Amino acid sequence: MSGHTGPRLAAIIGWPASHSLSPVLHGYWLKKYGISGAYVPLSVRPEDFGECVAALARMEFAGASVTVPHKEAAFALSVGHDEDAIATGAVNTLVFDDAKIRGLNTDVNGFATAFAESFGEEAAKSAPAVILGAGGAARAVALALWRMGAPEIRIANRTRARAQTMRSALKDAPIEIVEWADWANAFEGAGLLVNATSLGLAGQPALEISLEKLPQAAVVADIVYNPLETNLLRAARARGHKTMDGLGMLMQQAVPAFAAWFRVEPQVTAGLRATLEKALTRG
Ligand code: NDP
Predict the structure, then answer these.
(1) What DSSP character marks residue 39?
(2) Does some domain include residue 3?
(3) Any idea what the CATH number is for the domain that residue 63 is in?
(4) Which of 132, 156, 232, 277 could cysteine-pair with 183, CB 3.0–4.6 Å?
(5) 242 classed as catalytic
(6) Rounded to two decimals, what is the model's pTM?
(7) What is the pLDDT of residues 15-48, one digit of tens each?
(8) 165 in the same domain as 112
């Protein structure tokens, strides 16, 4: 960014990126803090990702968010990784400094902050956690729950090999792998359940699951935020579980990214949530 004096620019790179809520989110803060800048969605194919990032850096963008399917590629082409990027092997935030492209993972703390706000700092400590999924987001959730003191983390993923890779990556975490078909048994004695698959996301198959074996005191989180009330959350509420939707994580993971690019620490507020909810219902 040396010598750069114009509006500050950032982007979200995904394939596709067109349905992302992040432009509404960052756009809200840009306006609120009176910053001259813009944040745009860029739908970029995997084979074009490296070239796109290099071009944005040359054009003096401040950085970019990275979403499916580019988070591992973003790790590979960035340097100066933060601890969470190293632990997950995934980067969701690129920061273009003078001569280098820094790679951060803000999903881990994003989930942890949203979780603690919804359920309290101690909520992960009391009983085993169940995570559905073993993709990039599931890895971030597992790391967050481990740090928050989860005594055991049960992972159920359709592709068992991916759950095994995740267990190897998070070496010392207390991860138990559960067969996908056996997830109901994983619920026994659990204190929390997180859906970190893309099941239930608009356009994806539904998450067909019975919560019968989940203890009444367990809390339930879904990181899918479109729709905001997934079938899982609806079913959980009907049984009286405390729940958390995916917007909290989305808003929290954006805070350090916005601060790095636009040099203002933004606030997560009810007004921001209302704006995002409105954007979701507009579709
Ligand atoms: P990945 O593509 O890395 O992982 C997808 C996961 O979903 C895998 O575990 C995959 O299982 C599972 N899955 C997909 N289709 C099916 C199916 N038909 N049956 C069973 N399992 C299936 O994606 P991410 O981890 O990056 O994202 C997962 C979800 O989290 C998305 O919905 C995304 O929108 C959301 N997310 C939300 C965030 C937030 O801030 N709220 C942040 C990041 C992500 P398998 O390994 O077998 O393919």
Answers:
(1) E
(2) no
(3) 3.40.50.10860
(4) 156
(5) no
(6) 0.96
(7) 999 889 999 999 999 999 999 999 999 999 999 9
(8) yes
**Helices of type H across 33-174:** 49-58, 71-77, 83-88, 107-119, 136-147, 160-169
Strand pairing of 63-66 and 8-14? Answer: parallel
Check whether residue 168 and residue 230 sit in a common domain.
yes
C-alpha distance across the termini of the chain, in Å: 35
Q: What is the Å distance from ligand 1's center to 134 Cα?
A: 8
39 and 158 co-located in one domain? no
Contact, 228 vs 246, CB < 8 A?
A: yes
Question: Does residue 101 sit within a domain?
Answer: yes
Cβ atoms 220, 243 nearer than 8 A: yes
Catalytic pick from 31, 32, 71, 125? 71
What CA–CA distances, in Å, run from 177 to 5, 90, 138, 187, 272? 51, 21, 13, 13, 37
Same domain, 261 and 196: no
